[in-house]
Amino acid sequence: HAKANGRNDFAGFEDEMDALLRNRHRLETDLREALGANDQIEVYYQPIYCARTETLNGFEALLRWHHPARGPISPEFFIPIAEEAGIIGDLGQFVLRQACEAAMRWPDQTMAVNVSILELQDMDYVQKLAAVLAATGLAPERLELEVTETAMLTAGTCEENLKAIRMMGIRVALDDFGTGFSSLGRLTRIDVDRIKIDKTFVHGFDQSSNDKAMVRAIVELAHATRLAITAEGVENRAQMEFLREIGCDLLQGFYYAKPAPAAEIDALLAK
Ligand code: C2E
Ligand code: MG
Ligand code: MG
Ligand code: MG
């Protein structure tokens, strides 16, 4: 009996795996098509504010995929698919180009663009980056590339690219900081300009004094090592006030603004 059941369970499991793989394959194909079509994939921009003055400092470019049948699909879900399908390079170039063009219309604002570690490991990445800057005319000082802490911990081979990027005058930020378990010692040796505190710590402020202590310590360490610091996921006034009080430089979150299409930012800045 037990044996028969086990077999059935296993057959069920195989069917489920089949379905999952077919689904993923389907999405991969859809994503390739979407990239070619260019109307399903759009770049949104989320405003980032100076904590001290509460004035606009710049934007983060965030990809959106409006799937014709499934509706919006989160980048948390489709970026890994793009990475595995080998199309993250094309997707990354698309975002970069759009973001630099938008930044040219939005003077004095910085533009942060998320970069996959796979792009950063590409030998030609620096050249492609320079080509986009040349084509759009954006000053490198206005561009910041965000790489996740976890990716940086597992990669390691992109040090030369990172160095070249920073030599060009482009800044680099460690994204989702605090989730990748870097040792503090390691942080002082990674060549970046900014760290972005992951939103889960900011969201923990209400329940946990540990999260507050942790963020306070990260801010202190960042400043001691001359790193700028941004907090993401700021959703309410209490979080904003605490972050400002401990000296966090930039703030980003729904408390200020949600990511919006370029046309909305155009309208906002025209006012
Ligand atoms: P991320 O780079 O850490 O971006 C911040 C995420 O937090 C965004 O999610 C943003 O919409 C969300 N967020 C901002 N403020 C708040 C808030 O107050 N509360 C909450 N709950 N969330 C907030 P999104 O747009 O879904 O992007 C998810 C992740 O996907 C990004 O995290 C980034 O890792 C990745 N991603 C997005 N666009 C790109 C891209 O163009 N290239 C690459 N490689 N990755 C991207
Ligand atoms: Mg980011
Ligand atoms: Mg982040
Ligand atoms: Mg994130």
Automatic annotation (TrEMBL):
Residues 24-271 form the EAL domain. Residues 10-37 form a coiled coil. It comes from the Bacteria. This is Diguanylate cyclase. It comes from Thalassospira mesophila.
